[in-house]
Specification:
With 462 residues, the protein is an alpha+beta fold. The chain has three domains: 56-276, Thrombin, subunit H, CATH 2.40.10.120; 279-372, Pdz3 Domain (Roll); 375-459, Roll (Pdz3 Domain), CATH 2.30.42.10. The protein is 21% helix and 33% strand. The protein is built from ten helices and 28 strands. It has helices at residues 2-39, 61-67, 86-91, 119-122, 260-272, 290-296, 314-317, 337-344, 388-394, 408-412; strands at residues 71-79, 99-108, 114-118, 125-131, 137-139, 141-146, 151-155, 178-183, 191-202, 214-217, 229-231, 237-244, 255-259, 279-280, 283-287, 304-309, 325-329, 332-333, 352-359, 362-369, 371-372, 375-378, 381-385, 400-405, 420-424, 427-428, 445-449, 455-459. The chain is globular, with a radius of gyration of 33 Å. 34% of the residues are buried.
Length: 462
C-alpha cells in the first residue's frame, strides 16, 4: 500500500512538473514562432503586380498650372426690375431701379479672347465685366447664348494673346477618373478642387422637358463656380461646371457639368451660325427599364425603344421601325435617354451616325443622316416654323405654328393645335430661337392667330 502511494505521488508530481515546463518554455516558444510567421503572411485579397498599367497619378499640380490662368471671374450687372413687384416698377423709372450684381466663372478657350460660361451667369445682363487671373479687367460682349444647354459665349478684346484651355473629349471620360474643378466660388478667385467622375449622362429632372446629359462629379462646386472649368489630369477641358443639388444651397457632394463635346459644338455653332444647329434622328420612344420592358414585352431592359418615327427623316429613310431597340450610336452605349440626347447634342444636321439596334433578337447596324430640328417646346406647346404654304394660308409673314398643344390652361381658353403664335410679350416671333429662354414667370401675354384668321390675345398672370 505504501509503495502504491509513493508511485502515485511521484506520478502526480511528474505530471505537474511536465505541465509547468511545457507552459513556460515549449508553448511560449511556439506562440512566438507562430506570431513571427503570421506577421509575414500576405492576406488572400491582396494583389501584387497583376497589371502592367500604372495607376493614374494623383499629382494635380501640372493640370492646375495649365488651367488656373485661363479661368476668369465674370461679373454680371443687371436691372432688378424682373424681381420687383409691379407696383414698384410703376412708381419708378427704369433707370431708377436698383442694380443687381451676380458673379460666376468663365473659361478662355482661344488666345484671342473667346470665353465660354453658363447662360444663367450672364442672363438679363446690362454689363459684363471679366477679370483675369492677373487682376486685369475687360468689358465683354455676348456673342450668343443657348438656354437649352445653359451655355453662353463671350468675347473680350485685348492686344496680347491670352492663356486658354484646350478642349478634351468628354465622350472618352470614364467613371472613377480624377478631375479638377477650377473657378471662383464665393468670389474666391482661382480656386481648384479635386474629385472623381461619379456618373455620366445625368438628367436632373426627367419631367421638365429639357434634355440634360451632365457629367456628375464629387469635386467641390459652390456658388460662383458656375461657368468654370472641369478638367482632367492632363489639363484638358472636359466640362463646364453648371449646377449642384443641395437643400442648403451649398455643396453636399454632387456637382454637374455640361460635357465639353456639347459645349464645344454650341460654341462653334454660335460663332459660325449665330444659333445652335441641332441634328434630329427622327425617332420617338422611351428608354427601357424593367417596367417598360414588361409593357412592351421585350427581354431588354436597357436601350431606347422606338414607338414611332417621323416620316421622311433619317431614321425612317434608313429603315428603322417601331419596336426596334437602339443599343448604341457611333459606339456610345445607349442605356437611357440622356445617353442618346447627350451624344446627339454634339452633332450637327447633315452628319451621319452609325446606329446599332436590335430587331427580333438580332443586332443590326445602319447609317442614319441627322436632319435639322424643326420644332421647339414653348410653354408646354410644340411649335414649328411656318412653311411657305402655311404663310399663304394664314396670310401672315411671321409666326410659329402650334403642332401639339399640351398646355391645359391655354386649351381651356380655346387655344389648340393649328393656331399660330404671332407675338410673345408684344414682340413678333418668326423663328424657333425667338421663343427660347422664356421662363413661365417672364410671360405676360401671347397673341394668337386662329385657323379662321382671327387674332386672340391671352393675358397671363403668375
Amino acid at each position: 500500500m505504501k509503495l502504491f502511494l509513493k508511485i502515485f505521488t511521484v506520478a502526480i508530481f511528474s505530471a505537474i512538473s511536465s505541465t509547468f515546463i511545457y507552459d513556460n518554455y515549449f508553448l511560449k516558444s511556439k506562440i512566438e514562432l507562430n506570431y513571427q510567421k503570421n506577421h509575414s503572411l500576405i492576406p488572400a485579397n491582396y494583389k501584387i503586380n497583376t497589371s502592367t498599367i500604372p495607376a493614374e497619378s494623383t499629382d494635380f499640380t501640372v493640370a492646375a498650372s495649365k488651367t488656373i490662368n485661363a479661368v476668369v471671374h465674370v461679373k454680371n450687372t443687371s436691372s432688378s426690375s424682373s424681381s420687383l413687384p409691379s407696383f414698384y416698377r410703376y412708381f419708378y423709372d427704369e433707370e431708377e431701379l436698383p442694380e443687381r450684381i451676380g458673379t460666376g466663372s468663365g473659361v478662355i478657350v482661344s488666345p484671342n479672347g473667346y470665353i465660354i460660361t453658363n447662360n444663367h451667369v450672364i442672363e438679363n445682363s446690362n454689363e459684363i465685366e471679366i477679370t483675369t487671373n492677373d487682376n486685369k479687367s475687360y468689358k465683354a460682349t455676348i456673342i450668343g447664348t443657348d438656354p437649352d444647354t445653359d451655355i453662353a459665349v463671350l468675347k473680350i478684346d485685348t492686344d496680347k494673346k491670352l492663356p486658354y484651355i484646350f478642349f478634351g473629349n468628354s465622350d472618352a471620360t470614364r467613371i472613377g477618373e480624377w478631375v479638377l474643378a477650377v473657378g471662383n466660388p464665393f468670389n474666391l478667385n482661382s480656386t481648384v478642387t479635386a474629385g472623381i467622375i461619379s456618373a455620366k449622362s445625368r438628367d436632373l429632372n426627367k419631367r421638365d422637358g429639357v434634355n440634360e446629359s451632365y457629367i456628375q462629379t464629387d469635386a467641390a462646386v459652390n456658388r460662383g463656380n458656375s461657368g468654370g472649368a472641369l478638367v482632367n489630369t492632363q489639363g484638358e477641358l472636359i466640362g463646364i461646371n453648371t449646377a449642384i443639388t443641395s437643400v442648403s444651397g451649398g455643396f453636399v457632394g454632387y456637382s454637374f457639368a455640361v460635357p465639353s463635346n456639347v459645349a464645344r459644338k454650341v460654341f462653334e455653332d454660335l460663332i459660325e451660325y449665330g444659333d445652335v444647329q441641332k441634328g434630329l434622328l427622327g425617332v420617338v420612344g422611351q428608354a427601357l427599364d424593367a417596367q417598360l420592358a414588361a409593357r412592351f414585352k421585350v427581354d431588354e431592359t436597357e436601350g431606347f425603344y422606338i414607338t414611332d418615327l417621323e416620316k421622311g427623316l433619317g431614321a425612317d429613310l434608313a429603315g428603322l421601325k417601331s419596336g426596334d431597340i437602339i443599343k448604341s450610336v457611333d459606339g456610345i452605349t445607349i442605356n437611357k435617354f440622356a445617353d442618346l440626347s447627350g451624344y446627339l447634342a454634339s452633332k450637327r444636321p447633315g452628319e451621319k451616325v452609325i446606329v446599332l439596334y436590335k430587331r427580333d433578337g438580332k443586332e443590326k447596324k445602319v447609317n442614319v443622316r441627322l436632319e435639322k430640328i424643326n420644332r421647339a417646346i414653348f410653354f408646354y406647346m410644340e411649335v414649328r416654323e411656318l412653311s411657305t404654304e402655311q404663310r399663304k394660308k394664314f396670310n401672315t409673314d411671321y409666326g410659329l405654328y402650334i403642332s401639339n398643344m399640351n398646355n391645359r390652361r391655354l386649351y381651356q381658353n380655346g387655344i389648340d393645335s393649328g393656331y399660330i403664335i404671332l407675338e410673345v410679350n408684344g414682340k413678333k416671333v418668326n423663328v424657333l430661337s425667338d421663343v427660347k429662354g422664356y421662363k413661365v414667370s417672364d410671360l405676360e401675354s401671347i397673341l394668337f392667330l386662329n385657323p379662321n384668321g382671327e387674332k386672340e390675345k391671352i393675358i397671363l398672370q403668375f
